[in-house]
Amino acid sequence: MEKEKNRHSFSGSIGFVLAAAGSAVGLGNIWRFPYLAAKDGGGLFLVIYLILALTFGFTLLTTEIAIGRKTKQSPLTAYGKLKEKWGFLGILACLVPVIIMPYYSVIGGWVVKYLLAYLTGQGASAAADGYFTGYITGTAEPLIFMVVFLLVVAVIIYRGVNHGIESFSKVLMPLLLLMVVGIAAFSLTIHATDESGVTRSGLEGFWIYVIPSFKGLTVKGFFTVLLDAMGQLFFSLSVAMGIMIAYGSYVKDDANLVKSINQIEIFDTAVAFLAGVMIIPAVYTFMGREGMEASGPSLMFVSLPKVFSSMGRIGNLIGALFFAMVLFAALTSAVSVMEAVVSSFMDQFHMSRAKATVLEALIALAGGVLVCLGYNKLYFDIVLPNGAHAQVLDIMDYISNNCLMPLVAIGTCILIGWVVTPKTIIEEAEKTGCKFGRKQLYIVMIRFIAPALLVILLLKSIGILTII
Fold it and tell me: Where do the domains of the chain lie, and which CATH numbers do they carry?
C-alpha cells in the first residue's frame, strides 16, 4: 500500500491526455493511416474507422486505462492484481513494447537522418533513387542515429512521470499539432503539371481522400477495409501493448476518466485524419494515383522526398518541417513504449526508475543493433505465414503487432467481459460521479462484438483465414 501511495501521478488531466494522445500519435498514424485510406476507398475507410474508433477503440481504450487506475500497476503486474490466475496476460502485454522498442528506435533514427538532411540543405540528395536503400544498408550511420534517438527517449523516461513524460508532452504535443495543421493546410494549396501536361491539385487529392468510393466493392472487399481499419486502431490508440495501462496507473482517482478518454479519442482521430490531409493531396499532386500506393517506409522515405524535391525551393523547408513533425510524433510514441516496460520492471522487480531505464535501454539497444544489421550483415529473406517477405524488423513487427497484440486484446475482453465482469470497469470510470455515456454499448462490445472481431483479425493476421 505504501508503494501505491508513493506512486507518481500526472499533475492533471491535461498532462495525461497530452501524454496518452502523444503515445497514440506516432509513425503508425503518419505512414500507415494515409496509405490504408488511399488503398481502401478513401472516405469509405474514414467512415468505418470513425465508427470503429467510437465503439471498438473506445472499448479497449477505456478498459486499459481503467485497469491501470484501478490496480495502480503497470501492464506486467496489473492483470495479476485484477485476477491472480490471469497474470500471464500481463507477461504477453509487456512483451509487446519490449519487442517494439528496438525497431521503433531504428526507424526513429531514420527520421533523425532525414531531418538532418533537410536542415543542412541536402533535400535533393534525399530524394535521389537509392538514397534510402543506401542508408539503411550502411553499417555505421543507422547504428549511430538509432543510439541518438534511443538516448533522447531514455533521458525523458529517466526524468520520471512529471518532469519527464508530462513536461515533455506538454511542450511537444501542441507544437506537433500546430505543424500537422500547418502542413495539411499547405498541402491543399499546391498544384503541379506533369510531363504530359496534366495539371493536378492538392484539393483534388483531398476529395479522393474524403469521398467514399464503392467502385468494385465486394463483401470480401468490405471485410478487408473493416479489418484494415481495426488493425490501424491498435497503432492509433496504443491499445493491447500495455501503454494505456501504464499511463492509466498514473491518473489520479479524482480525475474524470470518461472525459479524458473522449478527449484522447478526438485528439487521435483528428491527427490521423490530418495525417492523410498532409500526405495524400501532396503525393497525388506530384505523383498521381499510382504514387498513393506506396506504404510504410517507402511512403515516408522514398515517395515524400520526391514530392518535396518537386516543390522547388520551398521543398527543402517543407521537408524539414515535415520530418521535424514526424520526429516529434516518433518521440512521443517511443516514450510511451519505453515507459510501459520501465514501469513493469519497477513494479515487478522493485527496481528504481534509474536502474529500470538503463536495463530497458540496453535491451532496446541490443535489439536495435540486430535490426540495423538485418539490412546488411545479417540480411535474409523469409516468407511469413501471412505471405509477406520479411527480415529482422518485419519479423519483430509481425510477432508484436499481428500475433501478440490481438491475443492480448482477446484475453482482455474475456477477462473483463466474463471473469471480473464489465461492472469492474464501469464502476472505475464512474468513481468520480461522472456518467458513463456509452455503458450499454461498452458491455455488448467487450463481451461479444470486440472478441469476435479480434479473433477474425488474429486468424487473418497469422494466415489461417484467407477467404477475407
Answer: 2-461 (1.10.4160.10)
Burial of 221 (0-12, 13-18, 19+ CB in 10 A): middle
Three cell numbers written together for 328: 516529434
Q: Is 373 helix (H, G, I), strand (E, B) or coil?
A: helix
Q: Which helix (H) or strand (E) holds 60?
A: helix 58-71
- Exposed/middle/buried for 326, CB within 10 Å: 0-12, 13-18, 19+? buried
Residue 342 CB coordination number (10 Å):
26
Residue 4: closest CA among 247, 243, 250: 250
pLDDT tens-digit map of 437-455: 889 999 999 999 999 999 9
Q: What are the residues facing 42 on neighbouring strands?
A: 212
Cα–Cα distances (Å) from 466 to 224, 302, 457, 459, in that order, read 11, 31, 11, 8
- Asked whether 259 and 13 are in contact (CB, 8 A), the reply is yes
**In terms of pTM, does the model score above 0.85?**
yes
Given a contact cutoff of 8 angstroms between Cβ atoms, the answer to whether 442 and 64 are in contact is no
Cell of 275: 495525417
What's the gap between Cα 285 and its chain centre?
27
